[in-house]
Amino acid sequence: MLYLEFLFLLIMLYIGSRFGGVGLGVVSGIGLLIEVFVFRMPPSSPPIDVMLIIIAVVTCASILEAAGGLKYMLQIAERILRRNPKMVTILGPLVTYTMTLMLGTGHAVYTIMPIIGDVALKNGIRPERPMAAASVASQLGITGSPISAAVVYYLTQIIELPGYGHVTLISIVAVTIPATLAGVLALSLYSLRRGKELKDDPEYQRRLQDPIWKERIANTTSTTLNEALPSSARNAVLLFILALAIIVVIAIFPEVRTIGEGKAISMGIIIQMMMLAFGGIILLATKTNPQTVPNGVVFKSGMVAMIAIFGIAWMSDTYFQYAMPSFKAGVTEMVESYPWTFAFALFAVSVVINSQAATGRMMLPVGLAIGLPAPLLIGLLPATYGYFFIPNYPSDIATVNFDVTGTTKIGKYYFNHSFMVPGIIGVVTACFVGYTLAYAII
């Protein structure tokens, strides 16, 4: 019966993934009802901690965007790319990775992707090379960001258990940043020579024969450099960086957050407080109109992600808490013999549910319940990014649409798409480096 119920869980996740975003969350709500009232599973608690972290980070990042700070960051990134156009396949992914590292979300990639494509095309570089790599890099950076919901959830859950108290935010990102950066560099190096040159690419040459496509290609100019930004945009970025710096300092010196009877405030709470407070500071310092905040890309995508996680995590957690006594024995035996196989479980779940935070919320309790060591859990954290496998994630779809040359594509057989090989290289490299580093650091 447990296997049938698990199959039901996967089917509901698959149906929800067909709709994506909000659809994924509310379809999971249907699954939750069936679990409770048909399968008679006791409902678990909703993932309030993860949702609050997402709300706080997205709110601050959205105010940064509304204040012009995101566009200021884009202008800096564009100057770097246009000064080194021949290096766009290396620099493009590094730019999107860095933006994700700072913002805690990969959805800012939509604004820089047309610029990466424009730089590549104007320099005779196959746009698929930097664009596909940049899309994958933007998501790989999530597990390296100290303010991402995935990283903070791991931190808040792991340190609560006996024997895991030595784990800190710094020790986690000391593993995940080098690991994911190594993954980004590896997939970028692979991308340098992938695919045919533009002069030999049949799809590009076909489009050049089509008058409509030829005009679009000839007149493609994406830039943010011709827009003058107020000084408040720069100030917003500096304040946001200050917030990140303060979070890191507090993580390094736990005595700063020790209040009352010697008990330290959790870093999850600290990040929520800092992001909320600095959202207010940026709003006041830059005199940003709060009514414009919900209109930005970051706010919309972040709130959609929160609803998706709300449903996914609650439905999944209800099943695993119910099934854990039976599930634990089989998984423990396999993972004890081959610890790295837990990465396959993380990856497979991520393919279905399109969220690293939701994957962590679903699978980390399983890993903790069967007694997996902290270095293993943290070293394999990049495996929570598997949703490049099925090309239905918004950033991948947007990247395909931004490439006017047609070189970035979803293949005829669906799985032979532009993001598959860079994604596999990035995740495998990051897990290998992360696994090695974690046992040396933690």
TrEMBL record:
Domain of life: Bacteria
Pfam annotation, one family: DcuA_DcuB
Gene Ontology cellular-component annotations: plasma membrane
Primary localisation category: membrane
UniProt keyword annotations, A-Z: Cell inner membrane, Cell membrane, Membrane, Transmembrane, Transmembrane helix, Transport
Recorded catalytic activity of this chain's protein: fumarate(in) + succinate(out) = fumarate(out) + succinate(in); (S)-malate(in) + succinate(out) = (S)-malate(out) + succinate(in); L-aspartate(in) + succinate(out) = L-aspartate(out) + succinate(in)
UniProt keyword Phosphoprotein, yes or no: no
Keyword field contains Cell inner membrane: yes
Topological relation to the membrane, as annotated: Multi-pass membrane protein
PANTHER family (alphabetical): ANAEROBIC C4-DICARBOXYLATE TRANSPORTER DCUB
Family per record: Belongs to the DcuA/DcuB transporter (TC 2.A.13.1) family.
Function according to Swiss-Prot or TrEMBL: Responsible for the transport of C4-dicarboxylates.
Name of this chain's protein: C4-dicarboxylate transporter
Source organism (scientific name): Pasteurella testudinis DSM 23072
Lineage of source species: Bacteria, Pseudomonadati, Pseudomonadota, Gammaproteobacteria, Pasteurellales
